């Protein structure tokens, strides 16, 4: 089934293979439903049989890019709603919205490029066995004053229990929940992509890290110079590294070692 | 000519002797290394490139001609990027 929703200035087409998810869409996003069609921007693939929900993977795609593959419908629903919320980011001035995700290990947090998060979605299981939790979002909100990563202020009019209602279709024991920002987070490490020819992990001057982060701010024209100030606070408190090479597994290993050790690993 | 760095419409963050500049007029971001940051800070419209270069060479014990070459090159880049007073950013630059 296919639905089109008008979310602010954007018309968003959503296709799903699942009548169950379709019914949830009708419940969660009814205020935004429009009759005119739009090419599918998101595709949501759930197991065909209801008894397979929670046992086989459900996948959310943006175009052809898998954003999340999970057994846990709560994770799927939250990532999906976060994605729709992110459509408003370029027009907002309540935070600095940066195309980035994050990885956590041992209570430390590394900010990483959104592109790397996309590459790592398929490796989420391996990452979690290594103790690394990877964010399910590809845009983070940074508070301009404190430089901390903060929860996104929701603006979509979605019923309060919408995610719980979806999760209730297939409760998962020990499902691989995604990582979301539910409280302000300090960023310990900033890792950004460097040249393919560069070393796997090398210290990056904070100004270079700031330039890289600022280049990924989706609402820079709206928030202007305040973005530089907030991101400068963030990088001043963090250790900043450039990631070289082209192997996402090597990169995440280097990030994990950096987070685990509290400094750059000697082998990198 | 005594070049002067633009003040209006620029947000500058200084970190470890380097700088990042956001130009609200063009929407461009610039990353300045320590040398470029120093020169940009000194472009206050009070000195010619030759005078400025001589001051830097004397302060750091460097060859004045080499310094002048670097300063001219940087000022050209600042001008092309529209970061100097009375200048407009060049397309593609």
Can you characterise this structure?
The complex is a heterodimer of chains A (268) and B (93). Chain A contains nine helices and 15 strands. Chain A has helices at residues 19-28, 73-86, 114-120, 124-129, 162-167, 206-215, 220-223, 226-237, 248-261, and strands at residues 2-7, 10-16, 33-34, 40-45, 58-62, 65-70, 96-98, 100-105, 108-113, 133-134, 140-142, 149-150, 189-193, 201-203, 239-243. Chain A is globular and about 50 Å long. The termini of chain A are far apart. Chain B is α+β, with helices and mostly antiparallel strands. Chain B contains three helices and three strands. Chain B has helices at residues 34-42, 49-60, 64-80; strands spanning 10-15, 18-23, 29-32. Chain B starts with 9 loop residues before the first strand and ends in a 13-residue tail after the last helix. Chains A and B meet through helix 6 and helix 8 of A and strand 1, strand 2 and strand 3 of B.
Overall helicity of chain A: 25-40%
What is the straight-line distance between the termini of chain A? 48 Å
Question: What letter string, H or E per element, gives the SSE order of chain B?
Answer: EEEHHH
Q: Into which percentage range does the β-strand content of chain B fall?
A: 15-25%
Largest interface: A-B, 19 and 16 residues
User: How many DSSP-defined strands of chain B?
Assistant: 3
What is the structural class of chain A?
A: alpha+beta
Radius of gyration of chain A: 19 Å
Strand arrangement, largest sheet of chain A?
3-1-2-4-5-6
Helix proportion of residues of chain B, in percent? 40-55%
**Quick one: biggest sheet of chain A?**
6 strands, mixed
Indicate the mean pLDDT of chain A: 88
Tally the helices of chain A: 9
- Series of secondary-structure elements of chain A, N-terminal to C-terminal: EEHEEEEHEEEHHEEEHEEHHHEH
Order of neighbouring strands in the sheet with most strands of chain B = 1-2-3
């Amino acid at each position: 089934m296919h639905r089109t929703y008008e979310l602010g200035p954007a018309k968003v087409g959503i296709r799903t293979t699942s009548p169950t998810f379709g019914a949830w869409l009708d419940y969660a996003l009814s205020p935004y439903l429009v009759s005119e069609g739009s090419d599918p921007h998101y595709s949501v693939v759930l197991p065909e049989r209801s008894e397979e929900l929670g046992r086989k993977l459900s996948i959310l795609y943006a175009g052809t890019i898998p954003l999340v593959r999970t057994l846990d419908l709560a994770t799927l629903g939250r990532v999906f709603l976060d994605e729709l919320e992110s459509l408003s980011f370029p027009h907002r001035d309540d935070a600095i919205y940066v195309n980035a995700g994050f990885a956590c290990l041992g209570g430390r947090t590394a900010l990483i490029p959104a592109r790397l998060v996309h590459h790592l979605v398929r490796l989420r299981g391996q990452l979690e066995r290594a103790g690394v939790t990877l964010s399910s979002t590809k845009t983070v909100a940074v508070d301009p004053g404190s430089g901390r990563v903060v929860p996104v202020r929701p603006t979509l009019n979605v019923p309060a229990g919408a995610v719980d209602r979806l999760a209730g279709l297939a409760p998962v024991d020990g499902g691989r929940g995604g990582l979301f920002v539910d409280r302000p987070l300090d960023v310990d490490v900033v890792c950004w992509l460097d040249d393919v020819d560069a070393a796997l992990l090398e210290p990056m001057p904070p100004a270079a890290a700031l330039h890289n982060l600022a280049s990924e701010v989706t609402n820079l024209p709206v928030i202007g110079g305040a973005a530089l100030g907030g991101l400068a606070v963030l990088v001043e408190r963090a250790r900043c590294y450039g990631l070289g090479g082209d192997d996402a597994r090597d990169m995440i290993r280097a990030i994990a070692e950096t987070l685990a050790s509290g400094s750059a690993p000697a082998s990198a | 000519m005594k070049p002067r760095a633009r003040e209006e419409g620029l947000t500058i963050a200084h970190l470890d002797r380097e700088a990042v500049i956001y130009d609200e007029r063009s929407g461009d971001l610039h990353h300045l290394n320590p040398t470029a940051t120093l020169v940009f800070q000194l472009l206050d419209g009070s000195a010619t490139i030759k005078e400025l270069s001589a001051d830097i060479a004397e302060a750091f014990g460097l060859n004045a001609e080499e310094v002048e070459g670097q300063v001219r090159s940087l000022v050209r880049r600042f001008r092309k990027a529209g970061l100097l007073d009375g200048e407009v950013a060049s397309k593609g630059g």
